[in-house]
Amino acid sequence: MYHQKWKKRIIFCLLFILIFFSTIILNILLVKQSAIAVKEEDWDRFLEQKDFIEAVNQVEQHWERDYEKYFDENLADFSVTAEDIAETLSNISQQTGTKPAVIWIWSRAEQMQLILITPGKKPEIYSVTDADKPQLINTVRRLNVEITNPRKRNTKSYLESAQKLHKWMVKPLEPALEQEGIDTIMFCLGMGLRTLPLAVLHDGKNFLIEKYALTRIPAFNLIDTNYNKIKNAEILAMGASEFKELEPLPAVPVEINKITRFTWQGNALMNQDFTVNNLQEQRQKKTYDIVHLATHAEFRPGKPERSYIQFWNDEKIGLDEIEKLKLNDPPVELLVLSACRTALGDRQAELGFAGLTVKSGVRSALASLWNVSDIGTLALMTEFYQHLQKTLLRAEALRQAQIAMIRGEVGINMGELSGTRGELQLPPELSEFGDEIFSHPYYWSAFTLIGNPW
Fold this sequence. Notes:
By secondary structure, the protein is an alpha/beta fold. The protein folds into 3 domains: 1-36; 82-222, Nucleotidyltransferase, domain 5; 235-451, Rossmann fold, CATH 3.40.50. The chain is 41% helix and 19% strand. It has helices at 2-36, 40-49, 52-71, 82-96, 133-148, 159-169, 174-180, 252-263, 276-285, 347-354, 356-360, 374-391, 394-406, 428-431, 441-444, and strands at 100-107, 112-117, 124-128, 184-189, 213-217, 235-239, 266-270, 290-299, 308-310, 316-318, 334-342, 364-368, 411-413, 416-419, 422-425, 436-437, 447-451. The strands form 3 sheets. Strands 6, 7, 8, 9, 10, 11, 12 and 17 form an 8-stranded mixed beta sheet that branches. A 5-stranded mixed beta sheet has the order 3-2-1-4-5. A 4-stranded antiparallel beta sheet has the order 15-14-13-16, with helices on one face. Helix 8 (252-263) runs parallel beside helix 12 and helix 12 crosses helix 13.
């Protein structure tokens, strides 16, 4: 009897170990399958047969599955084809007066693949043979390190990587982009590239953002491409300056006050009023096409529940439960997270960041790839909302704000935040930072638009 009990226990333990390791192996295989996405032999066939339409269709389907696996849910009930995308771009061009294009960038084992679709045109495929996968990923990582390293804040050490990536990712497409008069680019990026600060890519003379309005998309099939003007939109601005375990954000009260009192019509809720319940109640009373959350948000490695948006006190909303905010009922036109941090280079974290609009149901999101200084965030947000009033196009407003910072038109001088539209007197707790010009990419290239650029 005693031996039978032990025999059962041993069998149970062996079965548990078998299931455990089978799960690990299955996850590894799924990740590998997702990373490969379109098989090497299929790419070779697409290139040989010049079947570029099918290439786009396959990439869109595989990347949609990437996000569906990450969020563990079905995200789209239909698929758009390359022809649909070209037609949609033509329609949007007529509605907005812009000339948009979509660029897919995919890293293969020994080369990098680029796909371009412009309004009404068939897709074009380009192969970059001097950018194999390890070299490409290492260059992206090096760029991020050079930009975010505080010791290099007064240098241009980022330029080598920024120029190399521009040479690989943009230069092959430049003749077609210039011929079509493209001014807005939607980048759909593969694994390892989804948290690349696109704005900082450099052609030797200018940053990419100085030439094009930019946005990143998870897949064209996963964004809402409808054009809705936000000319008379009201803003719900919420945030916190104090936290129990996280760093304080002393510029948040100034940021929210500036946005809601002097720039846009709206409502402001701070600190103890910054709760999920209050956000839901405010959205029930009014639509609020723009929701601005000035708080810590983090996109972490692992499953969506590890990534979160921090509210007042101990209240957090995980990325897996962001639907509780009801930002899709009705859909928010623009969600702004002004103090984000992302685990750069991590596959799950970059899926969470790039998939923010998909999971939340908003049409566009403005967020940062790394945690920019509190005062630097205030500077960019002030510029962005001022330009948004004028242009009414989200990606273009962000572009104008970033250009102003590149040109040294935004900074702190004698306790005042100076910008393209005048000065803002800072409170004593912020004026002690001293004079500063926010022209280094650390301050402006982290901020990126996700989803609909219009």
